[in-house]
Specification:
It is built from 13 helices and 39 strands. The longest helix is centred in the C-terminal third of the chain and has 18 residues, at 520-537.
Length: 791
């Protein structure tokens, strides 16, 4: 946590200079707050300001530094990179929500978050992220001392010097080079004297940054971009942007895929070599509805329906209607709005569009059916009506879909057994439609419905190491497992907590973005998407056929006790094996095409982590043998844990820190087969670990469905834990939320702040309080929302 936020209850540690830079580990996700004097809510830094936060960190070449600016619509924060002597090496000074840099070489650096304007929370993420959060303008080649500018007014400003935008351009040293009235102009910029009037006008509050640059080319680029940034804040300027140099180049697709660790875990890339789905295969997502305007879901859905019967819960002014749009929610902590958009993205977000993320079956389609209202709740009756609609059965809407769904995804639960619902699922299954449901997040062995109904595929959740997630339900009804994530760790070293990344909505209004969520709700759509892949290559597959393949072990990698068990069911879904099984069942088994693949592309040994698992497997079909597996560092060792005669299987990867100096180390595991070679990057930190600390956490206890808490308290971290207690709480039904308030606006869980709920933020669990309760443990971590991901 940033050492000097605006929260007066938090511990204060100055980090406002290079000399006082706050040491942080690598990888890391960190929350902070910066503000110009007089900006932001009343608090510790509101009057004097907290313009700079500096962090000292050991970095590796190629790692990414990303800053997500929470309040970018009202404020502007920038990202700078310095060496330990305070010389500037790089910068990212966009005016939007994302700032990002790439580390040039191994070494110790100073990372600087700078408040250019206003006040804002921010999230700083450092790790192996690749191009996942987009490119900084610094990464593009620009023409220094030039800008493309369009005035907001149609009149020719050169003939009217009263136009303030043009007057400011003159004061900044800009001169017209090309263009004309009513259209964009190419403007040149005179090189001003250091500290002169034109330079001060161009750089504003960031003037002192120029003094820290030795490279004249970097200085020219920074001064040019600061001048353009200043113009963007001028009301008489319609837009101002750099004059970019362009050249022919390939554009990578779906840059956010680099953060979707959960796809290699289920061998999805190998399955995509065969199919990415089919527009003729439809997955009904029965949930909170959808953000239809999300660019990564454009063209990915067919007509749906809104079955939320209660107008007060619907939030759209009426009851059931043909519009499944999710209107959002402004309730604050723990809101479930845009849950259906996240689930839909995992199923079928657009792929190969150079934008955001990809869905499991990105060539298939989603049928959005809304049954959960603005409070994240619905009724079993409304759910049953949506199921009937998806299956083409008579329902309360009085209408039927043009084409029925092939798969129904239910990332919801909470109702007890219902005889009428059980009969409905039997009817749906008899119609040839597979039903997939989340097993539940109560960490309970009791049956959870609808997942526990006969004929419904119940999906448990695993983390990035293929271990059962702590919240995931267990029991005799579990059929299969899939990635659900874990907020509390970063096992792949990308700098973000290991949540499932998918399409989402930001804020109560639902601005399109990308969010990390955890839960069995996130696991279920992985399985629905894989079944969509199977149906794409073999449309004749029935639910009974899929069950038979599952029981024979052809759809999953066995985990836990041999055979089916109550934690993982028949194992972790394997997309490649499932597609091959579907093809074989249809009588068109593909030709042998073996391919070595791995369960992870990177491993992170942070803190005291000494060992992790890595699975090497045949991502195709045919004979594959591992020739060798080696490491590039003496401190890194691999030992077979559960390996077959071809060398394929699970390896224990261990590190030995003894005798190593404090710092961050990188190495590589190279696995060579008779077909291809894989490289897996490893990061290890050595030195005094930094205990988890997100600042002061405020704990709020609500009666179920209440708007105001019945009790609240605060806690500080001790050895990575926050202890709390409430006394004299009456018997009743409660929900528990916790979060930080870095900007001191008296609201927890804002963008850029930490948040948690028992058991998950995605689906808070009701605490039925009949007597004293203890050991109510749940993670509190930063909720990462990425506004845009583009190449």
């Amino acid at each position: 946590m940033d050492g000097d936020t605006n929260d007066p209850a938090g511990t204060s540690r100055a980090n406002n200079t290079v000399a006082s830079a706050q040491p942080i580990p690598n990888p890391i996700t960190l929350g902070g707050y910066v503000n110009q004097p007089g900006s932001g809510a009343p608090g510790r830094s509101q009057v004097d300001g907290d313009i700079d936060d500096y962090f000292r960190v050991d970095l590796l070449a190629g790692q990414s530094i990303t800053m997500l600016v929470a309040d970018f619509q009202q404020a502007d924060a920038d990202l700078y990179l310095f060496d330990t002597q305070g010389r500037m090496l790089d910068f990212s000074i966009e005016s939007g929500e994302v700032e990002s840099l790439v580390v040039p070489s191994d070494g110790t650096y100073i990372v600087n978050a700078f408040a250019y304007q206003g006040a804002t929370n921010y999230i700083l993420a450092i790790g192996d992220q690749g191009a996942a959060t987009g490119q900084s303008v610094r990464a593009y080649d620009i023409v220094p001392w030039q800008s493309v500018v369009k005035y907001r007014h149609e009149a020719d400003p050169e003939a009217d010097n009263t136009v303030s935008g043009f007057g400011r351009l003159r004061r900044m040293g800009f001169e017209p080079r090309a263009g004309g009235p009513g259209r964009a102009r190419l403007m040149g910029m005179r090189r001003g004297l250091p500290g002169g009037t034109e330079t001060r006008e161009r750089t504003g509050k960031a003037l002192e940054k120029l003094d820290r640059i030795d490279d004249p080319r970097l200085q020219a680029r920074l001064e040019t971009l600061l001048a353009i940034k200043a113009l963007k804040h001028d009301p008489d300027i319609d837009y101002a942007e750099p004059n970019y140099r362009v050249r022919a180049e390939a554009v990578p697709n779906d840059p956010g895929y680099e953060l979707q660790w959960h796809y290699p875990l289920i061998d999805l890339p190998s399955a995509w070599d065969t199919t990415a789905g089919s527009p003729q295969v439809i997955v009904a997502v029965i949930d909170t509805g959808i953000l239809s305007r999300h660019p990564d879901l454009s063209g990915q859905w067919v007509d749906g329906y809104d079955f939320v019967r209660s107008p007060s819960s619907a939030g759209d002014g009426d009851g059931i209607d043909p519009d499944p749009e999710d209107p959002g929610d402004s309730r604050g902590a723990g809101t479930n709005s845009f849950h259906g958009t996240h689930v839909s993205g995992t199923v079928a977000a657009a792929g190969n569009n150079g934008l955001g993320v990809a869905g499991v079956a990105y060539d298939s389609r989603v049928m959005p059916l809304r049954v959960l209202g603005t409070d994240g709740e619905g009724t079993s009756y409304d759910v049953d009506q949506a199921v009937r609609y998806a299956a083409g059965l008579v329902n309360d809407s009085g209408t039927l879909p043009a084409r029925t769904a092939d798969i129904i995804n239910l990332s919801l639960g909470g109702a007890p057994f219902s005889q009428s619902s059980q009969a409905l699922y039997r009817q749906v299954r008899a119609a040839g439609i597979s039903v997939v449901a989340s097993a539940g997040n109560e960490a309970s062995s009791q049956p959870s419905y609808p997942a526990a109904y006969e004929g419904v595929i119940s999906v448990a959740a695993v983390d990035a190491q293929r271990q059962r997630a702590s919240y995931s339900n267990t029991g005799a009804s579990i059929d299969i497992a899939a990635p659900g994530g874990n907020y509390g760790v970063d096992q792949n070293g990308d700098g973000y907590p290991d949540g499932v990344l998918s399409t989402g909505g930001l804020g109560p209004g639902g601005e399109a973005g990308y969010t990390f969520l955890v839960g069995t709700s996130m696991a279920a759509p992985h399985v629905s998407g894989v079944i969509a892949l199977m149906k794409s290559v073999n449309p004749a597959l029935s639910p009974a056929d899929i069950d038979a393949l599952l029981v024979r072990g052809e759809l999953a990698d066995d985990l836990g006790a041999p055979g089916r068990d109550n934690e993982y069911g028949h194992g972790l879904i394997n997309a490649q094996r499932a597609v091959l099984a579907a093809l074989t069942a249809g009588g068109s088994a593909p030709a042998d095409k073996p391919l070595l693949s791995a369960s992870a592309s990177g491993l992170n040994f942070s803190g005291n982590v000494e060992s992790l698992e890595l699975e090497l497997r045949n991502g195709g079909k045919g004979e594959l043998a591992l020739i060798s597996v080696s490491t590039t560092a003496p401190w890194l060792e691999l030992q077979p844990s559960n390996v077959d005669t071809n060398g394929l299987g699970v390896y224990r990867v261990a590190v030995e820190r003894a005798g190593l100096s404090a710092g961050v180390y990188s190495a590589q595991i190279t696995a060579r087969s008779n077909v291809n070679t894989l490289d897996i990057r490893v990061i290890m930190s050595v030195g005094a670990g930094v205990a988890a600390d997100v600042g002061v956490v405020y704990i709020l206890l609500y009666e179920q469905e209440a708007e105001e808490p019945v009790a609240q308290g605060s806690a500080v971290a001790r050895n990575g834990r926050y202890d709390f207690a409430f006394s004299d709480v009456p018997r009743g039904h409660y929900q528990l939320f916790a979060g930080s308030d870095a900007d001191n606006d008296l609201l927890i869980c804002d963008a850029g702040e930490a948040c948690g709920s028992w058991l998950t933020v995605d689906q808070p669990i009701v605490i039925d309080l009949e007597s004293d309760r203890d050991n109510i443990n749940f993670p509190v971590d930063y909720l990462i929302a990425i506004p845009s991901i583009s190449a």
